Amino acid sequence: AQSVTQPDIHITVSEGASLELRCNYSYGATPYLFWYVQSPGQGLQLLLKYFSGDTLVQGIKGFEAEFKRSQSSFNLRKPSVHWSDAAEYFCAVGGTPDSWGKFQFGAGTQVVVTP
Amino acid sequence: SQTIHQWPATLVQPVGSPLSLECTVEGTSNPNLYWYRQAAGRGLQLLFYSVGIGQISSEVPQNLSASRPQDRQFILSSKKLLLSDSGFYLCAWSGGGFNTEAFFGQGTRLTVV
User: Pairing between strand A87-94 and A32-38?
Assistant: First the structure.
């Protein structure tokens, strides 16, 4: 069965510093991968997605993610964080042939931005 | 454009009372529909998903049920709420197929007291 792991439950970063959030997946083939962001009390907003092709994916709000097949990873990065980036971030796997119509999320990483 | 509506935004219900949360999607047809629950400090747990009218798949045995009476309507129900049913419930839709993302509603904060 497929699974998604976000090893970091909580990350604190200074405003202006770089940010990297880790995501590892377990699946026999290349899944479709997503990163979502959730502000407190809100729904989830898609940051970016990877289906195929270029392994470096650009998203909204200055985020990017890199798919590394050899490491089964899809890490999210931002070169310089803003206070508004404080939120919870979820990695997700979806739409794989043996789980069509389903999305599976990691446990999430809470990002705190300090002045 | 497509929109998803989920209501109510917040709900406080006593233990043993029934529950009905509704989700509707506009601007698309035959969407895949999902109910997720997000408990405090935990990730999103897929509860139910549906690929068509009357087709419901349950992911986790629990005190809840789901129904899809119309193409773009997805309802989450319970006959008798438990304290453990408290959480943040999110409805989502996707366009079907392998390579489409899920779009989320704003969520319902359910507190069972």
Answer: antiparallel
* A95 touches A30 (CB < 8 A): no
Cβ pair B50, B113 in contact under 8 A: no
Give dist(CA A14, CA A62) in Å, integer. Answer: 16
- Which of A4, A44, A90 is the mutation pick for testing B, counting most B CBs within 10 A? A44
**Is residue A75 exposed (0-12), middle (13-18) or buried (19+ Cβ within 10 Å)?**
middle
Rounded to the nearest angstrom, the minimum Cα separation between A2 and chain B is: 13
- Tens of pLDDT along A67-93? 999 999 999 999 999 999 999 999 998
**Nearest CA among A82, A62, A93, A46 for reference residue B98:** A93
